[in-house]
Design goal:
Shape of chain A: globular
Oligomer: heterodimer
Mean pLDDT of chain A: 84
Distance between the termini of chain B: 55 Å
Order of helices and strands of chain A: EEHHEEEEEEH
Helix content of chain A: 25-40%
Strand content of chain B: 5-15%
Shape of chain B: elongated
Low-confidence stretches of chain A: 135-153
Strand order of the largest sheet of chain B: 1-2
CATH topology of chain B: Arc Repressor Mutant, subunit A
Distance between the termini of chain A: 12 Å
CATH class of chain A: Alpha Beta
Strand order of the largest sheet of chain A: 1-2-8-7-6-5-4-3
Number of strands of chain A: 8
Amino acid sequence: MNKLEMLPGAPNEIVMQRDFAAPRHLVKRAMTEPELVKRWQGNSRSALISVTIDARPGGTYRYVYRTPDGHEFSFAGVYREVSDERTVQTERFNDMPSEALITTTLTEKAGVTTMRVVMAFESAEIRDMVVKTGMADGAAESYDNLEALVTGM
Amino acid sequence: MTIALDATFAALADPTRRAILARLVRGDASVGELAEPFAMSQPAISKHLKVLERAGLISRGRDAQRRPCHLEASPLREATDYLERYRAQWEARFAALDNVLEELKRAKPKRKRTP
């Protein structure tokens, strides 16, 4: 499995990079076709129950998740820039006022696509909050997911 | 989420404070020694040290003159554990994306479905 790298960025940023053994147009499809997105953006604790994507400049997207106790939350935003190589989109959690800017860059070399994601939050404090809540929510579930993947192989 | 951890993250949000911690990994240091490489006044450094101390990231020695700063590793470790778990969450997602991509590769070229 390819390694996910957390790269140094500004204090308000999260920067991740990972290689995928697939050409760029397939990675792009997996990022923009709702039925495909549902299969990897969800997790074992919170199901991704609804995905709408209009991937063009000015178009919007919305991911709605549901936790096992029936609680729903969402990530939504507007695409600012969409090309084969670069996607820039805004993101709001639960339609809150604070908006993050997510830049995803896909570069293909010899059939391998490198994805770099830069998430820029409004402040370092918000970034840290995201890391913490992502964790609180994600800790148990991500390990469950890993386990399921490993046993399913 | 514990209040202590909030304080840790707030303290770590500042680049000067992260640099101070990086310096303290190499050993204890006085305010004067810490102020030197940063081109900052001692009062400015002292302010940062107070934030770090409140977050439990450093402790100050008893020596009234020097009051050397000492790195406290455990809250720092707790904070990095959080980052590691955040990473693991994405790691799991991307592993799932690997599976989707494998399937898309196998499905290529598109075949006509038999009725």
